[in-house]
Design brief:
- By secondary structure, this protein is α/β, with parallel strands linked by helices.
- It has 3 domains: 85 residues, Winged helix-like DNA-binding domain superfamily/Winged helix DNA-binding domain (Arc Repressor Mutant, subunit A), CATH 1.10.10; 106 residues, D-Maltodextrin-Binding Protein, domain 2; 105 residues, Periplasmic binding protein-like II (D-Maltodextrin-Binding Protein, domain 2, 3-Layer(aba) Sandwich).
- It is built from 11 helices and 12 strands.
- Helix 1 packs across helix 3.
- This is LysR family transcriptional regulator.
């Protein structure tokens, strides 16, 4: 059954006049008449009673046209949805975000997406990279954005660089260290640290910076992937927070947290990448999310976030 014939029949049912319906459809009247006759022959019953002056729907025609209108509505909805999927302005996207990008990139990215593509429905899993990798391979999410230094190159993954986030040491504004005229990295050890999980190379570099031997453990009092909890603990204690600056923009601007600056902290950074499965093309809607992430990165000060490619 030709979908065009359904459109012709519903137009004729609305107008109940071949001439007006043909004009509305931009067809000649004989062409419309032939199309209706063809549809009736295919169905095996008349849709319309007509004479020289009048057109009226038959009882069978009424039943058919009611269902035809539903089909045409579904077709229009399908066409609209597919157009949105094609240009990345609609559809559903499930993706993951590690602790650092959740805290430093997602709010601005989601706001950007709502402005640019309000038709996209999102589901975001915020967790550590191990959890996200499991869910990516299970195809519960389409991609994730996280620190990937512990993942490395793997045959089933595509890893696309996004940004680098310089890190440092941070404390509350009333911290005893800030009352000293001078302080050194070794002075941090007496207070202990809070932070999220760190790759082994970062831990090794941190030990060297603090003057610890490889056998000595880092004095980490609290380790978790929830930056809100880490910040609250730092604000209520004398612990030192190890974190990317980009995760603390508001607290630093408000003066609630202060950075303890030292030379030689260039190795303290987080590299954020976008990861998806090899052989799985990102949907247009997912590409819109990735584009929004890159736009967010591009608009951040280099002190906090530096784009990578």
């Amino acid at each position: 059954m030709d979908i065009k014939h359904l459109r012709y029949a519903t137009a004729l049912a609305q107008e109940l006049n071949f001439a007006r319906a043909a004009e509305k459809l931009h067809l000649s009247q004989p062409a419309l008449s032939r199309a209706i006759q063809s549809l009736e022959a295919q169905l095996g019953f008349l849709l319309f009673d007509r004479d020289k002056r009048n057109v009226a729907t038959t009882t069978a025609g009424e039943a058919f046209l009611q269902q035809a209108k539903g089909i045409l509505f579904q077709m229009r909805t399908l066409e609209l949805n597919m157009a949105q999927l094609r240009d990345g302005s609609g559809g559903h996207v499930a993706f993951g975000a590690g602790p650092s990008p959740t805290n430093s990139l997602l709010q601005a990215t989601l706001a950007r997406l709502r402005r640019q593509h309000p038709g996209i429905a999102l589901r975001v899993d915020s967790n550590n990279w191990r959890y996200l990798l499991l869910h990516l391979r299970a195809e519960d999410i389409e991609f994730f954005v996280a620190d990937t230094r512990e993942i490395g190159a793997q045959h089933d993954l595509v890893i696309m660089p996004l940004c680098r986030q310089p890190g440092g040491f941070f404390c509350r504004a009333q911290h005893p260290l800030l009352e000293r005229a001078h302080y050194s990295p070794a002075d941090l050890l007496e207070y202990g640290f809070v932070g999220n999980s760190m790759p082994a190379p970062v831990q090794a570099g941190l030990k060297t910076f603090l003057g610890l031997s490889t056998a000595q453990p880092l004095p980490i009092a609290l380790q978790c992937d929830n930056f809100t909890l880490l910040k609250e603990q730092t604000l209520s204690d004398d612990l030192i927070l190890l974190a990317p600056r980009a995760s603390l923009v508001h607290e630093l601007a408000a003066g609630r947290l202060r950075e303890l600056r030292f030379g030689g902290t260039e190795s303290l950074f987080t590299d954020i990448d976008i990861v998806h499965l090899q052989g799985r093309t990102l949907s247009p809607s997912a590409r819109s999310v990735v584009d929004a992430l890159r736009e967010t990165v591009a608009h951040q000060p280099a002190e906090f976030i530096q784009a990578r490619s």
